[in-house]
Design a protein that fits this description.
Length: 252
């Protein structure tokens, strides 16, 4: 039986002000509940623009986004209570500690008291950062900041978690910790929507993948079906090169 859809995107277009081109072009997608959906594409393909529209940070030029049967122009607050956002840029206060940052953002979702403190400790421990809880963010490495960014986005237990390149620029250890943590959240019921450059990571992690280039979705299917449907492809990288004509460096 098909899962019910939690995100429905129809005929989405985006053109930034004072530019001549659309950077998202006629994108229509349905994302079912409990999916791990990966949006893959080369630099400048439109991944950040599209995911920013889906989490309500940007307005589309035209088209429609429906999340849990709700639309941003009518029920923005209701949608925001049910989603979590982990942006590509660190959304953290550098001179506050990790714990202070997390508590500051979590309190905006109404988390407080003992429950909040227990959740903070549990997440910090799970992501290997409990010993750094009371250190200032300014002293953290890129991988540690990414993990705090992730806790900030998920502590209120969102039904959908949007992540823009959550593993970019981090070492293998941080990357594995992040991916394993996201898998656990997904097993507990969170739908994950993420963008990435990492084809091998996405192939192993995602239940469904859309490949975007020049603002257009070229393909959308399970990793296995994408590979099977592409002549001589043995992995997602082969599919990607066939569809976009580009080699996407699977860098750290
Ligand atoms: N604020 C903006 N104003 C004008 N053009 C923009 C703006 N933000 C992004 N763009 C352009 O829109 C296109 C898509 O950019 P976007 O950041 O969505 O791509 P991306 O796939 O996320 O790239 P990357 O992998 O490098 O992060 C690019 O050509 C970019 O230069």
């Amino acid at each position: 039986m098909m899962s019910k859809s939690v995100i429905e995107i129809s005929n989405l277009y985006k053109q930034y002000q004072h530019t001549n081109n659309f950077v998202v072009k006629d994108v229509s997608l349905v994302i079912p509940e409990k999916e791990i959906f990966g949006l893959l594409g080369p630099n400048g393909a439109g991944k950040t623009t599209l995911i920013s529209i889906l989490c309500g940070l940007l307005k589309p030029t035209s088209g429609n986004v429906v999340i849990f049967d709700k639309q941003y122009n009518k029920q923005q607050k209701e949608i925001h209570q049910q989603i979590g956002v982990v942006p590509q840029e660190y959304a953290l206060y550098p001179t506050l500690t990790a714990r202070e940052n997390i508590i500051y953002f979590a309190s905006m979702y109404g988390l407080k008291g003992k429950e909040l403190h227990q959740k903070v400790d549990k997440a910090l421990k799970r992501l290997g950062l409990l010993n750094f809880a009371d250190k200032k963010i300014v002293t953290f490495s890129g991988g540690m900041k990414r993990r705090i960014n992730l806790i900030v986005g998920m502590l209120h237990t969102p039904k959908i978690l949007f992540l823009d390149e959550p593993t970019v620029g981090v070492d293998v250890h941080s990357k594995n910790v992040i991916i394993e943590f996201l898998k656990e959240l997904n097993e507990k019921g969170t739908t994950i929507v993420y963008t990435s450059h990492h084809l091998t990571e996405a192939e192993n992690f995602c239940t469904d993948i859309a490949i975007i280039d020049h603002g257009e979705i070229f393909a959308h299917d399970t990793p296995k079906n994408l590979i099977n449907a592409t002549k001589n492809a043995s992995n997602l990288e082969d599919v990607f090169i066939e569809l976009t004509g580009k080699q996407l460096r699977d860098d750290v």
